[in-house]
Amino acid sequence: MEDIVQNLQTVRERMARACERSQRDPSEIKLVAVTKTVDAGRITAAIRAGVRIVGENRVQEALRKKPQVPVQAQWHMIGHLQTNKVRKALQIFDMVQSLDSLRLAEELDKQAEKLGRPVEALIEVNTSGEVSKFGIQPQETQAFIRELERFPRIVVKGLMTIGPLTDDEQRIRRSFRMLRELFESLKSTNQPRVEMRHLSMGMTDDFEIAIEEGSNMVRIGRAIFGER
Ligand SMILES: *Cc1c(COP(=O)(O)O)cnc(C)c1O
Questions:
Q1: CA–CA separation, 80 vs 165, rounded Å?
Q2: Structural domain that includes position 85
Q3: Which sign, positive or negative, has the C-alpha torsion 193, 118, 81, 151?
Q4: Which of the four pLDDT bands, split at 50, 70 and 90, describes residue 132?
Q5: Ligand 1 neighbours (beta carbon < 6 A)
Q6: What global pTM score does this model have?
Q7: Alpha helix (H) ranges present in the chain?
């Protein structure tokens, strides 16, 4: 477990240096520790070491592990969510970072109504153009958000993207810059239950670039827990 404490410290230091380079305040940036494939004991150790938000990409896996984690954190769904898993997802997750279709929005709204509570969500945007990736097209995001007005239990808290899988730093940067610009332009959207607060971008291989481009929420797995 000592590796987790050490790795977290290293990640925090790298985040702080990226903030320095871009004249930003490190306290503005939230860290989501991505715990897919990580067992409950190690998740518990990370939370004891200061992690406040845990990210999982599979409902069944999170459902199994969460009861075995005796310490408090926010749990975020970061992977593609199938509509038939929504009911269970809402039992464990505090936020869905991967809202990527109206069909999913409709189901989230319906299940949230049954539970009598709102659902916080980030819109997943496909900024890389990779067809393998889920997410709303950037140019369709504004119209997508307007459609969400029909679903009164969905509260939009920002945007999320997964950068392109490439070593080409300029391509990665362009992808993040595009999301940042979209985020800024959507801030003036005057729609109830839409607030551009979280800009979730950056993972182990690209979080420093993401911070330089304005991310305020990074999702980091391997740099904390080791290779999967
Ligand atoms: C796995 C995953 C991450 C973390 O990836 P690492 O490379 O381990 O940091 C972040 N976001 C999403 C959506 C993921 O699926």
A1: 17
A2: 2-225
A3: negative
A4: confident
A5: 34, 36, 57, 78-79, 162, 203-205, 219-222
A6: 0.98
A7: 2-21, 40-48, 59-65, 86-92, 102-115, 141-147, 169-186, 207-212, 222-225
What CATH number does the domain containing 12 carry?
A: 3.20.20.10
* Spacing, Cα 6 to ligand 1 middle (Å): 19
Query: Of all protein residues, whose CA lies closest to atom 12 belonging to ligand 1?
Result: 78
Distance 150 CA to ligand 1 centre (A): 31
pLDDT beyond 90 at 221: yes
39-66, pLDDT tens digit by residue? Answer: 999 999 999 999 999 999 999 999 999 9
Residue 131: per-residue pLDDT: 87
Angle at 1 between CA 90 and CA 3, to 5 degrees: 110
Q: Whose CA is nearest to atom 8 of ligand 1?
A: 221
Number of domains within the chain: 1
Other Cβ atoms closer than 10 A to 91: 12
For the chain, the residue count is 228
Query: What does the block give as tokens for 135?
Result: 């997410």
Average pLDDT over residues 116-138: 95
